[in-house]
Specification:
The structure is a single chain. Among the domains are: 75 residues, Alpha-Beta Horseshoe (Leucine-rich repeat, LRR (right-handed beta-alpha superhelix)); 28 residues; 164 residues, 3-Layer(aba) Sandwich (Rossmann fold), CATH 3.40.50.10140. Helices cover 26% and strands 19% of the residues. The longest helix has 26 residues. It is an alpha/beta fold. The chain contains 20 helices and 34 strands. Bound molecules: 2-acetamido-2-deoxy-beta-D-glucopyranose (NAG). 2-acetamido-2-deoxy-beta-D-glucopyranose binds next to strand 22. InterPro entries: Cys-rich_flank_reg_C, Leu-rich_rpt, Leu-rich_rpt_typical-subtyp, LRR_dom_sf, TIR_dom, Toll-like_receptor, Toll_tir_struct_dom_sf.
């Protein structure tokens, strides 16, 4: 393949011209930091305020008519000066005597008539073409320009030894503008030692130059502006006969040629036995008429004929008259591109063509059908034509046994006849089907030994899995389609290059990295990646292969969805293992729950958690209630916070534990032995005490149950409770009371015990604090007590 590409370039002939131009451009490109462009701004003089360091100055297409030494002498670093398309009429080369580095001077397209000479040695490129010189402007000082590569000149007349002063230079390129040449009688000009000679004639008049130009060595000849009719055709032939005799002339280009068909065939016929190997005609216009012309395909040195950009001004003509001349050519390479030609004929005898390029014509599916004579054809390019049916293309190749490369890109090819068997010649290794209208079906109609397949810019949605016959495929380009996944390589076991960017791949499957072991390069950017759990595997795989394999990573690989990730490079996309792995998530949740359960059980069993919870619950409920009871209701004539009823047996606990704890918080207690009013009966005292207290605390124990008095107290308090309708009873169970121990007559006590609304005195010392705090909380209310002395605020 590489070889053929080279052939194409060479056949375009530009090789010899391009080397000069490219060489010149690249040579100066690194001066760009001191480059100044001031073209097309109507300047009449070179501005005086340019930085003296300027190296490249483009001042073309202005109105400058005069150049003086003071204009440029201060630009001592100047290397490139472009002054084309101005109105300069006279030039004294001595103005450049302070520009020692000046290498490139373009003065083309001015009105120069005269130059004054001065020894300058630095020029590499000197262009004086397209001016009004009468004779060739050659100073004898030009003979010292030993570095001169390019020389452009113009003249109205020529003399044999005009170029003698520079004959010893080894010029690469000599441009001779003969647009104003007017001499009618025959002249001659001798040119020595040039690689490329470019002659430009008048663009609008018939070719009439009768100079006998002789050359010693010449590699490339280029003629621009050739207008011919049937009569003056011989003038050109005569002009060329001396020039094309030299055996070194391998490349010949005719540029902007307008001719009759008859004259074109005459010119081709003239060149056929000449040494020219690469003939290019660029921008050809055919006028007048096209008729059958005889052409003798004698032995020729010609390898490649290229005709590009043809305008046909003849509308009615026998098609075969035109096409036969080309189809029967006994050369290797033929390029006819950018023409209105609708067809090309099958050669009548086995043909010498190895390379045919018919880019950008209007060929249809009928081209080369049933053509058995293109037996040596290796490369066929039918890019940008009107081909429609992939099956016909396959059929066309059937009789081209040497065909290796086929390019049918930029047509309107469809592959709808999916089920039918399609045939290809087996020799094809490279097939370019890009920019067509092909669908998934195309994979069922491909040459079996393909190595390179270009299918970019089609309408493919998926690559069928059951395509098994592309075992040799190494490079696959399916960019700019609608694929939703990467392919696996089970079907393409040799795949090493995959281009699949600009598709609709959102969740690339693992299969690609698993099955494509031979992959050297994958380009999958610019797809709408869904940055979810499934993508992590792909990102991981990309991270594992070597960095050259994934093309355009990481810049072209971005999240498209979800919205929160949009635009984020895939390489920065991370998701935790936990949020993606359901099994792991379940195991983790289970483990956490187990730990919680064990902890809870432990707390319940060993630390009596339920007791604490009950306490806390009680506390909050008390506080809540206290807050909800209207204060006024409590503001009755209360003297105490609490009345405590207990059995004599429990007195020690009450006095040592309960009372100190409550009184420490300024809770006023009514104790019978302390606060009983003498003279009143015991019952009166009890009722009095209960009524004057905000709450009544009962310390329950087996002794309490047995005490008659205590039961009275409880009865009154309970009565009081229901009377007032509030919950002012606090029961403390100091010691457990067996159910059967409570005498049946005490049914109030029984029912209270049943409701379990008592607070149990914990045995563990650690719990005593919380227990007492809980009791205290019941009194945590703002209450104005009606004491004898004062109103105490709590
Ligand atoms: C196929 O043709 C297109 C368009 O002419 C071109 O850009 C591409 O490089 C070709 N493919 C190959 C593999 O040569």
């Amino acid at each position: 393949m590489g070889q053929d590409k080279e052939l194409i370039v060479r056949s375009f002939h530009f090789v010899c011209i391009m080397t000069v131009i490219i060489g010149t451009i690249s040579h100066f490109s690194d001066e760009s930091e001191f480059a100044i462009t001031m073209s097309k701004i109507g300047l009449t003089h070179i501005p005086k305020d340019l930085p003296p360091k300027t190296k490249v100055l483009d001042i073309s297409q202005n109105n400058i008519s005069e150049l003086q030494i003071s204009d440029i002498s201060f630009l001592s670093g100047l290397k490139v000066l472009r002054l084309s398309y101005n109105r300069i009429q006279w030039l004294d080369f001595s103005i450049f005597k302070f520009n020692q580095d000046l290498e490139y001077l373009d003065l083309s397209h001015n009105q120069l008539r005269k130059i004054s000479c001065h020894p300058i040695v630095s020029f590499k490129h000197l262009d004086l073409s397209f001016n009004d010189f009468d004779a060739l402007p050659i100073c004898k000082e030009f003979g010292n320009l030993t570095q001169l590569n390019f020389l452009g000149l113009s003249a109205m007349k020529l003399q044999q030894f005009d170029l003698l002063p520079i004959a010893h230079l080894h010029l690469s390129y000599l441009l001779l503008d003969l647009g104003n040449y007017h001499v009618k009688e025959s002249e001659s000009l001798q040119i020595l030692n040039i690689k490329t000679l470019h002659l430009v004639f008048h663009s609008n008049s018939l070719f009439s130059v009768q100079v006998n130009i002789s050359v010693n060595t010449l590699g490339c000849l280029k003629l621009t502006n050739i207008k011919l009719d049937d009569e003056n055709c011989e003038v050109l032939i005569k002009f060329l006969s001396e020039l094309t005799r030299v055996s070194t002339l391998l490349n010949f280009t005719l540029n902007h040629m307008e001719t009759t068909w008859k004259c074109l065939v005459r010119v081709l016929q003239f060149l056929w036995p000449r040494p020219v190997e690469y003939l290019t005609i660029y921008n050809l216009t055919i006028v007048e008429s096209i008729d059958e012309e005889d052409f003798t395909y004698s032995k020729t040195a010609l390898k490649a004929l290229t005709i590009e950009h043809v305008t046909n001004k003849v509308f009615l003509f026998p098609q075969t008259a035109l096409y036969t001349v080309f189809s029967e050519m006994n050369i290797m390479m033929l390029t006819i591109s950018d023409t209105p030609f609708i067809h090309m004929l099958c050669p009548q005898a086995p043909s010498t063509f190895k390379f045919l390029n018919f880019t950008q014509n209007v060929f249809t599916d009928s081209v080369f059908q049933n053509c058995f004579t293109l037996v040596r054809l290796e490369t066929l390019i039918l890019q940008k034509n009107g081909l429609k049916d992939l099956f016909s293309v396959g059929q066309m190749t059937k009789n081209m046994p040497s065909l290796q490369i086929l390019d049918v890109s930029f047509n309107s090819l469809e592959s709808d006849r999916c089920e039918e068997n399609c045939t290809w010649v087996e020799s094809i290794v490279m097939l370019n089907l890009s920019s067509n209208k092909l669908t998934d079906c195309v994979f069922r109609c491909l040459p079996p030994r393909l190595e390179v397949l270009d299918l970019h810019s089609n309408r493919i949605e998926s690559i069928p899995k059951d395509v098994t016959h592309l075992e040799a495929l190494q490079e696959l380009n399916v960019a700019f389609n609608s694929l939703i996944d990467l392919p696996g390589c089970d079907t393409f076991s040799s795949l090493s290059v995959l281009v699949i960017d600009h598709n609709s791949i959102s969740q690339p499957s693992d299969e690609f990295f698993q099955s494509c072991q031979k992959i050297r390069s994958i380009k999958a950017g610019n797809n709408p990646f869904q940055c979810m759990c499934e993508l992590r595997e792909f990102v991981k795989n990309v991270g594992q292969v070597s960095s050259e394999v994934v093309e355009a990573w990481p810049d072209s690989y971005k999240c498209d969805y979800p919205e929160s990730y949009k635009g984020i490079p895939l390489k920065d996309f991370h998701m935790s293992e936990l949020s993606c792995n359901t099994a792991l998530l379940m195991v983790t949740t289970g483990a956490i729950m187990l730990v919680v359960a064990v902890t809870v059980t432990f707390l319940c069993i060993y630390l009596d958690l339920p007791w604490y919870l009950r306490m806390v619950f009680q506390w909050t409920r008390t506080r809540y209630r206290a807050r909800n009871v209207p204060l006024e209701e409590l503001q009755r004539a209360l003297e105490f916070h609490a009345f405590i009823s207990y059995s004599e047996h429990d007195a020690a606990w009450v006095k040592n534990e309960l009372v100190p704890c409550l009184e420490r918080e300024d809770i006023r207690i009514c104790l019978h032995e302390r606060n009983f009013v003498p003279g009143k009966s015991i019952v009166e005292n009890i009722i009095n005490c209960i009524e004057k207290s905000y709450k009544s605390i009962f310390v329950l124990s087996p002794h309490f149950v047995q005490s008659e008095w205590c039961h009275y107290e409880l009865y009154f308090a309970h009565h009081n409770l229901f009377h007032k309708g509030s919950n002012n009873l606090i029961l403390i169970l100091l010691e457990p009371i067996p159910q059967n121990m409570i005498p049946s007559k005490y049914h109030k006590l029984k029912s209270l015990m049943m409701q379990r609304t008592y607070l149990e005195w914990p045995k563990e010392k650690s719990k005593h604090g919380l227990f007492l705090a809980n009791i205290r909380a019941a009194f945590n209310v703002k209450l104005i007590l009606d004491t004898e002395n004062d109103h105490v605020k709590i």
